[in-house]
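Reopening this ticket.

The earlier resolution said the output was attached, but the attachment link was broken on my side. Pasting everything inline this time so it's all in one place.
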Amino acid sequence: LDRFVIPPSEVEMQEAIREELEGIYRLGLGGFHSMESQASAMALKRAQEAGAMFRYVWHFPLDDLDRMIDLGTRSYLEQGSFIIGGVKIFGDGSLGSRTAAMIAPYHNDATNRGVLRYSGEELDAIITKASAAGIACTIHAIGDHASRVVINCFNKYNLKHSDKKMLHRIEHLQCVAAEDLTTLKASGAYCAMQPVHLANDISMIENAWKGIEDRAYRFKDIADLDIPHGFGSDAPIETIDPFKGIYSAIARKPLNDPSLASWHPDQQISVHQALKAYTYGAAMGSGSQSWKGLLAVGMAADIIAVEDWTGKPDDFWLEQRCFMNMVNGHINYVDI
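Inline output:
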């Protein structure tokens, strides 16, 4: 019997979801994006129907694209607590496994440039097919070569279909050449980035991407060019705690250790910029910025209360916590 995995019952599944939600409420989170299967998406939707208050955006697998087209699915069309995002596509691998697709070989590994999973022509075809059906593309790109291919494909689509704007997304964008930033801006693509990865990636970057470290985690360049972007966590790969992510973005310390020097401090951003990326910027990532992401009259009452950080050092964010979490006017968590 030990060889068989017994799937959880619906009751067990819903209880597990409730427990996880309690954890993220305490961290000030009221919503998230997921790139999991339809079964996972439907389990979360059932939790919402049962009364759980959270925002959820589902980016479905590429294997489901034809089915979603047949169903008449449209990305980001129905705005609310459950939003269908784009089709998730893996453009390359990862830094840790040295499979992120790179323009030049990995340091001390002259035959390895990573793994580019689709050529530009293949991605063009997928983007065209999905977009024609009203479905946006959410493409994972970590290496500078993968980033270049995805950026060029999105820009090519934008040039051909400037009258049909789509919320195409680049997931991660961990490494990008300076000469590709202008094209990225022109493409109109949204960049979903995860600052908390930076803290644990620095040693790997210096080892694997030696000589091009300045291409990694270009938060300030992205912000200065006003390229649409937002921050997240990539949980469970890294902690889902947004306060750790804020610290990583503003301090750029290895392992988020305040005693260490900031890594490439020229790419540090301000607290205001980091907070904007986690709020309004995150709302942009689901086409929802017209009704949430800002604390203003007429916007959704998705609110958290934190301690005033004015005048505090950057490492204050490592101890920051949520005192109240509200989604759509409903208080999910309070500790005041």
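Reporter confirms the inline version is readable. The radius of gyration is 20 Å. The chain is about 35% helix and 15% strand.
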